[in-house]
Amino acid sequence: MNALQQRRCAHAEAITEVRPESLDTCPECVALGDTWIHLRVCMTCGHVGCCDSFENRHITKHFHASQHPIIRSLEPGETWAYCYVDRWMVGGRQMTVEVSNFRS
User: Fold this and answer.
1) CATH class of segment(s) 3-90
2) Do residues 75 and 93 make contact, with C-beta atoms less than 8 angstroms apart?
3) Where are the alpha helices (DSSP H) in 15-87?
4) Mind listing the pLDDT tens digit for each residue in 30-87?
């Protein structure tokens, strides 16, 4: 993490590897019989939810319920992360999402 990111987001330093509860579905959308657009993962607990481009906004609802500050994209080729508390894009490459040998 560079110096500017450290000034803007103190939460990123506490993030370690997480194991997503799903890699290809939003479990809450599935339970509703609904669809989703893009998936995000909570970098505190591994909860997976749909993005804010869809009406359900499950990952944002997870933040409001849990106060877990950082999410990361689960989309192929995307490594960005976002801190809800600081409203700051966080360098995502150092935040590891364990995907090997895992299927939802």
Assistant:
1) alpha beta
2) no
3) 27-32, 58-66
4) 999 999 999 999 999 999 999 999 899 999 999 999 999 999 999 988 888 899 998 8
